[in-house]
Fold these 2 entries.
Entry 1:
Amino acid sequence: MHAMDELVRRIREKRNPSVIGLDTCLAHLPPKFARDHLRELPNMEEAAQAIFDYNKALIDELYDIVPAVKVQAAYYEMYGPAGMVTFSRTLDYAREHGLTVMADVKRNDIGATAEAYAAAYLGQTTLGEGKASAFCADFATVTPYLGEDGVLPFVRACEEHGGGIFVLVKTSNPSSGQLQDMRVGGRTVYEMVGELVADWGRGLIGEEGYSAVGAVVGATYPEQGANLRARLPRTFFLVPGYGAQGAKGAELAGCFDANGGGAIVNASRSILCAWKTRPDMDFAHAAREEALRMRDDLLAGLKAAGKEGANPW
Amino acid sequence: MHAMDELVRRIREKRNPSVIGLDTCLAHLPPKFARDHLRELPNMEEAAQAIFDYNKALIDELYDIVPAVKVQAAYYEMYGPAGMVTFSRTLDYAREHGLTVMADVKRNDIGATAEAYAAAYLGQTTLGEGKASAFCADFATVTPYLGEDGVLPFVRACEEHGGGIFVLVKTSNPSSGQLQDMRVGGRTVYEMVGELVADWGRGLIGEEGYSAVGAVVGATYPEQGANLRARLPRTFFLVPGYGAQGAKGAELAGCFDANGGGAIVNASRSILCAWKTRPDMDFAHAAREEALRMRDDLLAGLKAAGKEGANPW
């Protein structure tokens, strides 16, 4: 199976171009949930178990309305090896519920080391005469600072195992321009990286028209998003920065194709912590309400931009 | 304690500006060691245990002659959560033996997520009313593509906990120039990033004259290394690419200051797999011989460049 084809079809089936970011840590748990699941001085294993329980409750509540989850490795590594068990269990639980699973690991290294990362998240690890999976994701995020030596081992793993990657092109943070907006020759660094991403993905274009090699394009830079959209017609965008980071649906239409495809928008804290702004609801119900609100906001933005008419939905 | 001061003192005490890279995976184990430590079809836990046993034997053999080890996370993530247990145990075992420990994780993310990574490797994780360490390293490696939002959370963790980072500036791989050598304004991307690294580290300069914010500068580009050395007098360099990647001692003198300080050179496979070229020795003894040969090669290169005379060694 081609991971990007599968993602596109799930977005279409659920009529929802959004992905929920499970950046879960203890500080995001509602006080009642924390009281019920944790001692006052928990150890790493107990913390990691409570985080899995929270993720599980959110997946149970959201899997029928969202096509994908993105699991941010930093929040799991913070709890040591026990956190990595929860990371792995969360990926597995989401996949069992028919969700496309993105390991947001932003890995980058060279040669044999990049191959090891690709094996860890998208492929399999050789164990003597056998093989086994370390962390089972459909997609991993990758950083391009090392050039193609750091990316092609992931591309080869996509080819072999059917997974996909999203390469950082233009990120959502305030200082992303410090390097990415610098001009090299007649274009910016992020435009140049975008073109490299299109090149790297040229051999992996699926039936839905998009390559398994996608790009991360921050929601907080709508002009740059529209610019990249025009330049990279075969590149699917993972668009973080909605919600807590400030972007709204109407600003994001430029990241989508004329037919409303080609992008998926991530929100993390606004969903994980939806209980904070909906004190009358339990956390899972609040997350569902916020996920539905976000979906409708994105679809309204696409409609307002005239991108819904030709949409296959 | 200031991690860079400590590293500089250990280099001086052992008269050895080299760091051993523990990029250990099953394919690096000698056949006899693998037969003694593994079944034909090992599981992840057994593989991870064998890798720890190998690392332990190497540390036991090398800790009196080398100042530091660099542990490459990719090779441990490849074995799933069990691999992360071995990663953590390897860091701890090396620290217990008086070695400076570098977690080669090349992490990068923004805001709260970068803080989570910094907590995972250099700081502590909040657990209710308490705190605990996830992975205990003296240094972590960091990728700069996201700009300062992705680096300053690590710098703050260094300040708070006494650790250090090495930011990728000019990497050792063949395609590193694809992005890093592009010209932005009157300089290259890697020169620009080098200047940012110096800025980010300005508040963390230790008694030995170097900032806790260092730079990764590939051994395979000696001209660029000498260029950066001249531009960044307070920035300590982690120099990978010696040995298996092709660089030799005489080519590396340019990465060092006039007094022979300011850099540490990494070798991984040439040490881990020294048994391949020394079939008459057991693997640990072969690693020691290669580590001593490397040390002498580096010191001879410094001497030939006239950088030994003023050396505090």
Entry 2:
Amino acid sequence: MIDINILLVIALILFTTKILAIFTRRINMPQVVGALAAGIILGPAVLGVVEPNEAISVIAEFGVIVLLFSAGMETDFRQLRTSFKSSALIAVLGVSLALGGGFGIALLFGMPTFESFFIGVVIASTSTSITVEALNEMGKLKSKSGTSIMGAAIIDDILTIVILAVVLGMGAGNGGFSIASVGITLLKIALFFAFATLGGFAVKKLFDKMYAVMGQARRLSVFALAYCFLMAYLAELFGLADITGAYLAGIALCNTRCVEYLETKIHELSYILLTPVFLANIGIHASLDGMTGSVLLFTGLLVVMAVLSKVAGCGLGAKMCGYTNSESMQIGIGLIARGEVSIIIASKGISAGLLEPGRYSSVIIIVLVTVLITPLLLKRAYRQKPA
Amino acid sequence: MIDINILLVIALILFTTKILAIFTRRINMPQVVGALAAGIILGPAVLGVVEPNEAISVIAEFGVIVLLFSAGMETDFRQLRTSFKSSALIAVLGVSLALGGGFGIALLFGMPTFESFFIGVVIASTSTSITVEALNEMGKLKSKSGTSIMGAAIIDDILTIVILAVVLGMGAGNGGFSIASVGITLLKIALFFAFATLGGFAVKKLFDKMYAVMGQARRLSVFALAYCFLMAYLAELFGLADITGAYLAGIALCNTRCVEYLETKIHELSYILLTPVFLANIGIHASLDGMTGSVLLFTGLLVVMAVLSKVAGCGLGAKMCGYTNSESMQIGIGLIARGEVSIIIASKGISAGLLEPGRYSSVIIIVLVTVLITPLLLKRAYRQKPA
């Protein structure tokens, strides 16, 4: 028997999310903000009618996985390939600036060197799920800057995972093992990408063949979803984020002849149930436990650094690669949001004894603030575009 | 962090379900059987790669809820009203025969009177979820017999819940309390139906109004789903099954002007993810633990009684109400399947000390066998129809 309260929780999330989405739309704000606010309002931070919950987390995770899968399917593959170099530069500059900035702030607050560096790693990552949903809403996901954001986000994910492996390896204090563990991490990442690429070509051919045989059979969308979950699982198995796997699964299908059909089907699944739960769940995890004045100041400075480092670093990278000013701004802003990767890194750091448990609330706040402001800033950045 | 194995499990369920569904279709068997078989094969009974799991159970429960919600939306309301009396007779005869039969078999095997009666209650219930999916596949859900099956199933649900309340009240041994508890149960059921009816009319009007304002906004389908989950929750709160609430929510919407639009949207959600997980999850719970020869004989006889009692009892009821022979057969067969209600009753009986824990495996087998043969028999029964 399942806990029946979950039924009420889902009903509340769906109602509140959509009602707030209507409201945010009226006042000309992105609907994503409404859904996030729904979670904050329902969760422990305000009303406390919904507590963080395992089952909700599972559905939320499915939500972000399917969201990135859709984003992958909507990718313009040729553009992704041509923008690879610029994406790499954008990612490296953004990650370095955030890492350095976080490190510096933590040192200023008297934290030990190693823990300070870890704080830098926590705020170095990027989460594009909110950006994807916001760009979707504005119809800008396939734009040149949208594709660069997605490309940079993948490289960001890899960079942060590698850095985390290095830091954890060093932190473990076994000099001999650290280099080996970094090597293993790099090897696993390389293996996964090789597998994803080769498998992706095979899967593309398979879907084209199935489509030729069955036509628009709905069964195709079930197979596509199964492939998405498999890749998400494999990514985790190889030490990457599940959403990276899901995104690559989407990219594998982005050139199949049935991609538009698949997108329509998968999109319903996201829209009706999974995405609202995913967005609300972020808000549900908001909490202000253990926030003293000094911690609040520390958190505030980290938030500012988290925002500025990406806007400046990624924006600069984009500018250096020949993007216009407004495109560079869009790219910088599109990479502001932090998400599950920051949270995962923080939890790993805490469980490895490299980070004080009290820092967790700060990380959640950084995630929440960046997630809330990203869609607002993005809307502004894309509105100014034509000039 | 969620357990990443769930991603692999979902991928496996989706793959296997659809591949077996293609296969069962080829050999002219209902696809539902393929999905059930997928669960049995993946589960502990055969390969053991998927264990029963809380998160899967939650998604499976969402699956059966959304399935019954869709069935409700597809109801021909006028037909449901006119067939109410016949549905009641069909339900009462089926429940009585199964109850008496189960009681008799258990007595024959030397079980105490009270426990024997409880065995009768366990096999008295009906689960239409499999029937709904099978009728859906054949496009017969809106047929006259299809509507009677759904009507009888609702009354079945109420009857079994009331009988369970009586038995648990008697079993508790507090003579004074038992009548009170039965009274409270009846009152709660009456209250729930009153609320569902009044609320249903209000909700119908609200959706018609929203549709007039927004048109085919996808947001409507999110509100509809929220309403479905809310009613499922309330049904459980009032002591009924969640699927009864979901079905009534569907009926409330079955006459709105936007019902076809809603159905299409909600159906994607079921088809792509929820229904495969729901069906496979039944198979995953299959197990042959503790099956001695005598228990196997006992279980076998109960299975035969479970099938015959519904075919004969419900079929007779339908015949008495003027249905043709083939329609009566369809109705009898449509009510064979046992499901979550039987499992719930058995668990309640075990936790109240009224049923030996060892009986649980028998109940699971009854559920599995009836669930597997129902779609096969239904296909046959509906094929013979025109004659």
